[in-house]
Specification:
By secondary structure, this protein is of the alpha+beta class. It has three domains: 1-76, no CATH class; 102-274 and 309-329, C8orf32 fold (Roll), CATH 3.10.620; 330-424, Immunoglobulin-like (Sandwich). The chain is built from 15 helices and 14 strands. Strands 5-4-3-6-7 form a five-stranded antiparallel β-sheet. The protein has a four-stranded antiparallel β-sheet with strand order 10-9-12-13, with no helix packed on it. A three-stranded mixed β-sheet has the order 11-8-14. A hairpin with a 2-residue loop joins strand 9 and strand 10 (366-372). The chain starts with a helix and ends with a strand. This is Transglutaminase-like domain-containing protein. It comes from Draconibacterium aestuarii.
Length: 427
Amino acid sequence: MRKIASLFILIVIAWGCQTKYPGVPKTYHALLDTAFIKAGDNAPELQKALAETPEAQKEGMAFIISYMPERDLTTLKAGFLLENSEYAYKAREKYAWCAALPDSIFFNEVLPYANISEDRDNWRKDFYERFAKYAENKENMVDALMAIARNIKDEVNVEYNTKRSRVDISPLQAMKENMATCSGLSILLTDAYRAVGIPSRLAGTAMWTNFKGNHTWSEVLVDNEWQFIEYYPDTLNQSWFVADAGKADPENLLHWIYAVSYKPTGMPYYAAVDAPYVMNVIDLNTLPENVRERYKRRKERAEKKEPYIWGHNVTQRYIDLYQESIKNSKLADDELMANVVVFADANTTKSESRKSCRVDVYEGDKSLNFGYSPRKTDDMNQFLKFKLKKGTSYRFVVSSPEDNIQKEFTVTMGTDDTQDIQLVLHT
């Protein structure tokens, strides 16, 4: 009798585990439990959204609630979440490129209702109806995304303007004001792509290495490869900022290039507007004097807080894109390609001797260009590339404030089309 009772208890427990969140994979159960606790008084709204979601959309809704920032757990309502899910899945059913996506990409780069810290607008239905005509009858996703990029400005009537009310302006507010800067424009473009099932995310940097500002843009997943595009488009992986992005410092997170992730990655999106924790990781001593005081004041005002915008470090991809563009660009008759590597010591045959430093190139006193030399973990065939003039002498200034490095080299270019330059810090 005792065995029968024990078996009955096990069956009840197993049945309870299966029906706790019907239709939701067990991997989400503990995450949902935590989310509902954090939601407090708003938990019934989230539970209603999960309960009323159609069976085919259950896992997607579970994903969204499980990884939802706490600011949204306590405020978002069931109707908002259900409509967002309904139209995201409509796009998945309608467009072949969306239907073909792995769930992991669809959940993280199509289904989310927001990008960074913008207001949570109910944009999904409106954008689905607005941008479907540009995706209609397109043979492939690239044709669709280019059609949207070429027409979005006129469709939403939003132009670049620094007079916008806030940096991280939401789609509907940008359309109300008819203006936005790079963050707001990129949010508009990314949401337009997501509305028609194109996986998209924001990318950006907190500060260029030349300290002339920052920037945000959109990325799209094409043939399983992330490529970038802007609100005012050239074409994929082409824009004015490539040279700035290609000079990112892989050793300094202030200058990294980040891409946004809805699902937590363990790495904050340090390019986020609403991210005072960025100030807490800036070493003021590494900043130029002309911006140090401004950042000191920002650092003093910044309060440490938990991040809720997550990201990936995609710096190296942009460095590689820029270096590849230089390598593939046509050389003039009097130009050569300089392949620069910095070594910590004279053992230049080992990757462990490579030292990532800033390298500035001067002709006389005129600053021509700069970049960051490959790291010890980079492929030995990777170089910092500069287009320079044959037969001309240049000064290469190697610096790293963190390591107290400041050393100058003078090198005269030869007459071949390429020249390898090894800058050895300690002989």
